[in-house]
Amino acid sequence: MSEETVADIEIYTQPGCPFCVRALQILASKNVAFREIDAPHGTPERAEAIRRSGGSRTVPQIFVGDRSLGGCTELMQLDASGALDRLLGRA
């Protein structure tokens, strides 16, 4: 993670999740600071991710501030379109 903070980025993950690993790689490639929150099934952290996302039960769940970006697929789409850089203040 970088010391440079562009936005308050949080990502809820669980061990062994390949989608979580990919999303973490994308965020790391942007050289922005983010907070990874371990959120396995049945934990208060997972319940918080579900609440914040509006009911999505999958991981990862990615947030910039209070805005839900969705999961890995949505993050990949934002990155491919250039919208992720704009959202992070990079473009």
UniProtKB/TrEMBL annotation:
GO terms for cellular component: cytoplasm. It comes from Swaminathania salitolerans. Residues 9-67 form the Glutaredoxin domain. One of its GO terms (biological process) is cell redox homeostasis. Keywords: Cytoplasm, Disulfide bond, Electron transport, Redox-active center, Transport. PANTHER family: GLUTAREDOXIN 2, GLUTAREDOXIN-1-RELATED. Has a glutathione-disulfide oxidoreductase activity in the presence of NADPH and glutathione reductase. Reduces low molecular weight disulfides and proteins. InterPro entries: GLR_AS (IPR011767), Glutaredoxin (IPR002109), Glutaredoxin_subgr (IPR014025), GRX_bact (IPR011900), Thioredoxin-like_sf (IPR036249). Signal peptide: none annotated. CDD domains: GRX_GRXb_1_3_like. One of its GO terms (molecular function) is glutathione disulfide oxidoreductase activity. Belongs to the glutaredoxin family. The keyword Disulfide bond applies. Pfam families: Glutaredoxin. SUPFAM superfamilies: Thioredoxin-like. The keyword Oxidoreductase does not apply. This is Glutaredoxin.
